[in-house]
Here is the input.
Amino acid sequence: MSTLHALPIYQRTAEQLIREIAAGRLLAGERLPPERDMAAQLGISVGTLRKSLADLEARGLLERRQGSGNYIRNVPDATGIYAFFRLELSDGGGGLPTADVLSVKRCMKPSAAPPFGQSSEGHRIRRLRSVGGRVAALEEIWLDGGRAEKVMPSDLSESLYLYYRDCLGLVISRVEDRVGVSSVPPWRPADFPLSVGFTAGYVERIGFDQDAFAAEYSRTWFDNTTVRYVARLN
Amino acid sequence: MSTLHALPIYQRTAEQLIREIAAGRLLAGERLPPERDMAAQLGISVGTLRKSLADLEARGLLERRQGSGNYIRNVPDATGIYAFFRLELSDGGGGLPTADVLSVKRCMKPSAAPPFGQSSEGHRIRRLRSVGGRVAALEEIWLDGGRAEKVMPSDLSESLYLYYRDCLGLVISRVEDRVGVSSVPPWRPADFPLSVGFTAGYVERIGFDQDAFAAEYSRTWFDNTTVRYVARLN
DNA sequence: AGGAATTTGTGCGTATGTATC
DNA sequence: AGATACATACGCACAAATTCC
Here is the structure.
């Protein structure tokens, strides 16, 4: 394994799965691939993967049936799905994560972005993400212009993955996360709490549809403390 | 491993440790032996033991410090110690386990008992054990007659181990549990709920003091359902 | 202060048991 | 009954944190 990562493999794997469940890419009742296949696909050992799955089971997100398979659990929408986030903040009320759409604009793709999609234009979606009322991250998502003529802010639900699937018939089949270092995005709202230490890093996502066509490119900025919270699963 | 046991090794090991904590043989703050030593002593692999220890940590009974050791956690008496039992019943109120002393009598040791202690007489203690108001088990304990001249029912606290330690200066250093099949004890109270299925088995305990002198012999009968509850840690 | 020894954490591989299909 | 898939158990190697001298 690479030694660049600060977090152990089983935690990163569990975190990744939790994100995909919370985002709607893995739906309730869905069955995961066999552990051996899944481990081989992830490039990790079965034992390590099993430790991740045990974590998800402990959180009530997964049901493991011997001889049958691992199934995404049907969780009551408002409470269970975001247990991951709730647990990390744990400031009493159990606040839910929200996503306020700041702006949606169709414009030319940025040159800094990797090539994705067929159109030279894209829908630029900027969101302010909060957890339990506390601002947690800024997010910029690019959706390929060929996917939709126009995207209304009111169309975007809390989960972009669900919007893609229900409105665009687009299924995100792969997500890559890379953690690096960045500065504050220039479109930061005036009331964004810069003082909490928003200097740490960002997550860069490139999503592909089932035909291996890039349809989404996104970057998420977050503040220092949130990074650490999200990173720590246990 | 032996195939006679219905429960996996890691569960039996965790159960055994939990009992010793709840009974007071392992005190708060105490440090366990290194995992490798402990595993060798138990005749199991380190990985299996670690699974048991992780279980105890998840219950809040143990604190594991990398590079340092495993420490019994200081739990608030009335609530935390019996988490094991509370969890298994989980019928709302979180009832605590209790032990009502039915009788204490000094008499000749039974011939069926294994040899223990130096005296030919012993104190026969019979207790009715309940969890959350529900009768759970019958218990017969024999304490060697040489240990005390007289034992008053009022002396016996909820935990016999604590009574031994505080009143008799006797430290139980080893406990053996064997599960077998037995019939209902002949001294069963008339109101004991035989109907719930009290036909299953018993636990036989032989305790030794630090000088390797047997000082206690006990048998515990329990009903079917309780057995299964106690047995299932997860 | 610092380096060696100790102790738990992580990760991998493998073999076997057991439940399910 | 056979195949599939998860559960248990063991062992080893190395990393990371702590403790001790």
Summary: Residues 1, 8-10, 44-48, 51, 65-69 of chain B lie near DNA strand D (CB under 10 Å from a C1'). The helical segments of chain B are 9-23, 35-42, 46-58, 77-80, 83-89, 160-168, 224-231. Strands of chain B lie at 62-65, 69-72, 97-108, 121-131, 134-144, 174-181, 201-208, 214-222.
